[in-house]
Request: fold
Amino acid sequence: MNKALDQFIPGEQGTVLKVGGQGAIRRRLLDMGIIPGTRICLVKTAPMGDPLEITLRGFNLSIRKDDAAYIDMAAE
Amino acid sequence: MDQNPQQTLEKDEFIPEIDHSHDGTIDDLRNINNPKGLHLTFALAGNQNSGKTTLFNYLTGSNQHVGNWPGVTVERKVGKIKKYPGVELVDLPGIYSLSPYSDEEIISRNFIIDEKPDAIINIIDANNLERNLYLTLQLAEVGIPMVIALNMMDEIEENGDVINVAGLENDLGIPVVPIIARNGSGVTDLMLRAIGVALHREQPPIRDICEGEVHRAVHAIGHIIESKANAFGYSARFVSTKLIEGEEPIKRSIGLSTQEAKIVESIVAEMETATGLDREAAIADSRYQFIGRVSAANFKRKRKLGEPSSSEKIDKVLTHKYAALPIFFLIMLLVFWLTFGPIGSWLTGMLSFAIEWGTGLVDAALTEAGMAEWLHSLVVDGILAGVGSVLSFLPIILVLFICLSIMEDCGYMARAAFIMDRLLRKIGLSGRSFIPFIMGFGCTVPAVMSARTLENKRIRYLTVLLAPFMSCGAKVPVYTLFIAAFFSKGQILIMFSLYILGILVAVLTGLILNNTAFRGEPAPFIIELPPYRFPSFKNVSLQVWEKAKDFIERAVTIILVATVAIWFLGSFDPKFYWTHDSANSLLAALGGLLAPIFKPLGFGNWQAVTSLVAGLTAKESVVSTMAVLYKTPDSSMAEVLQSIFTPAAAYAFLVFVLLYPPCIAAIATIRKEIGLKWTVFAVISEIATAWLISFLVYRTLLLVLV
Reply:
């Protein structure tokens, strides 16, 4: 099932299909290795519901929901 | 995918031949073939949390100089390497890429491209090979000799992961030295290899983006721009990938003609169609494809995706949905208590005892020598008082930065940002801004200093501008005096209301600034949550030492000048005669001049206004100056105040004290962090805000109380 990363629930995994957005934010996502084909697991949401903690390529990132919405995923 | 990436290489004339069998020695440094004689400059580059600071501290020890990169408040650290005094090491900011989007990245690339260090030491976290190598590949493109310091090899072993160092070196074509920066293991070898590549001018080969459509584009564009790029001393490959990524600055700096730009764009368009990826994604994708192969061939990770790491287990508690906030506030409370509570105040007490003792000695000596009264007063009440006030900040800076460095070094700071982000984002701040704000309730000076590690310039500036609205500890005596004199009921509530008002004004100012002066594209808040690690004693102590040194070096002149200026105004009358009666002083005259401005706020008497001016040296002076000007002992202050202020005016006065510019020490610190222009803006806007809010409060109270 395809959906954006901000729609994931904790523990859910998937593969990146497309990275949207623009400018600095998009570039940062790409630089972090979030490119089509990358596998990402949503670890948890912060206590106030935002940002999200994700893990990919062996490291963990904090990413805001607004930015995660740019990442289209194929959920497993 | 066990296929060796090297075999897939196409031949490419932009790629230098490699031969890195050389080790450098101290004799090489003295060799006459070394064009720069004894001097080499190395750049230390790497991701955040790769152990870069630890390695830098290990290599240079206390032999380092901390300053700022020109024009920005990003720390610039340079040091001489302990065993090789001819080698200077420049610590570049922790970055993930050489993209042109953040100050840190721009600084790093400009340094590497323009200053051309003799070698780059690229430190990478072995646990995090893929993302760290992404920067490595971009650094290699620039064509500066390079070695890779493969850090945290001890953790690789502990985690049961396996890494093939020789294979990695072979696939990348860049020397790879396994090290443990924490205990210095492998570091000697690293230095020898670095000196070796530097002396033999060994350019790293380029092996990523060596196939397919993207390679074709890189190559085609490389041919077009090669002569122009070389004329500016840039490598053709670097310029080529940057042009594909669509960078404007590089286009301008090599002076691409319209015709050439057109060809470049058509090549890029062709590549985009062929790959189905846009220009930026195509480059990132090619790099990560290459990295994926190298990593798969040489690195076996025991843990699977989604399987919790040990840090994630710790975070089950520390960033737990319900437990996270209470734990965060407990930690903040502890830090605050250590800093401003018993330990901090004990240290401050010891120090002020020493200062008083010293001042006493000087005082006695001057009396003995029969010095002129004004000179005596200048030394004791002006200069020594100024020095004392500078020093009194030291203990709290020390204790606070010990706590903060530990939190930073162990990885909790990133979690604090994660937990608090939601709350502070609306006013354009990040979760980490919370720490300067909490500290602001103790003292604005360390609060402003602690903003230095915030993610980007905009957040740093905003945080520094807003932190002074947190009511600092020195204002409490003023509040207590007035509240005791005017309000018999609800004293705690009234005190509390001032703190809340400060926070409200900060939020409001934040909202306004965020939509005016600081409007613009939001900076990405995509931060790493690094694994928890035991804090390093060396890193913590070096950072604390730097902060203390920094404060003294920079604050001392401004604070001294300001204290002496206020002393001068308070000790001479308008005809410049020495005066004992402060009511006749220049300061009082100034107060009288300014008093009408404060009439609408209900306290337009010269004594109150003069005390406010005196309060700029330190907020405690407001009370002591009032006692002097109203010519009354402390015991009967309350009655005197009651005869002069109405309750509404008294509260308005407190609001003004809450919001007007902090003391000189704080202003000097703010200046250091955000520069003169913004400091002037801060001071003026604080005065304006204080006046306006105080006016509104006074008028409202008049209506309500009548």
Summary: Chain A touches chain B through 39 residues (CB under 8 Å). The mean pLDDT of chain A is 94. Chain A has one domain: 2-75. The helical segments of chain A are 23-31, 65-68.
